[in-house]
Amino acid sequence: MRVDVVTIFPDYLAALDLSLVxxxxxxxxxxxxxxxxxxxxxxxxxxxxxxxFGGGAGMVMRPDVWGRALDDVLGSADDDAPGHLVVPTPxxxxxxxxHAEALAGEEHVVVAxxxxxxxxxxxxDRARAAGHRVSEFSIGDYVLNGGEVAxxxxxxxxxxxxxxxxxxPHSLVEESHGxxxxxxxPVYTKPPAWEGLDVPDVLLSGHHARIxxxxxxxxxxxxxxxRPDMIAALDVAGLDKADLTVLAEQGWxxxxxxxxxxxx
Length: 264
Ligand code: JD8
Hints:
By secondary structure, the chain is an alpha/beta fold. 32% of the residues lie in helices and 19% in strands. It has a five-stranded parallel sheet with strand order 2-1-6-5-7. The longest helix has 19 residues, at 208-226. The structure holds ligand JD8. The site of ligand JD8 has 18 residues, from strand 5 and strand 7. S-adenosyl-L-methionine binds at residues 114, 139-144. Homodimer. It is an enzyme of class 2 (transferase). Specifically methylates guanosine-37 in various tRNAs.
């Protein structure tokens, strides 16, 4: 998979030299290229921004500079592997594990990192008009100063799903936001007793069926407490009697095939 990142702060992406993504790059599983947007400026001040039409605070990133950069990096839409343009923006669709799974299936992703008040809107319009798939994503309901941190988040999220990146692909299955649609259960390791706090006995029992049931109960209870929206989205057909018992204890009931909070 090829990933290009265009930014005025290339050093921000240095974190992707580390850890699993770093290893994936060295192993050739991920061809990640970071570009400085200023390489596509034409003036001696390497200007990338200008004042906003319609007035207002701050500066806007120029379309002409971004246009030249994306023409070079994104390539043309009728290439054999046309790039999928990803633009981090606080006004984007909220990025989820589903989006990460979809992007992990791409051959070529280009991430355009904005700064200032954002990128002139015609840059995305022109890429779409040229036939490129364009996704504008937000990583959450808070405001950052630019797109680089979001780029790090998204590239790690889909990069770790590439075959061979995560050592034991099985560990991808049981994760939060995975296929089960639940948050993860709590995890423990040695020592069995620490600061007067003991590891739950069931985990020391070696009784795999009981351990699996305990972990499922914990994941259900945790999800009900922290993410009721995820419980409401669960497919009832995928729940067994024990699941429904735990959810009932957490205030949920099945009503016309859907999970609903028991009316107060
Ligand atoms: C891209 C410029 C800063 C945003 C004026 C502060 C994503 N979840 C998210 N929060 N913020 C961003 C984000 C912020 C960005 C850019 C993404 C480019 N800014 C701007 C508008 C208000 N400044 C983000 N993904």
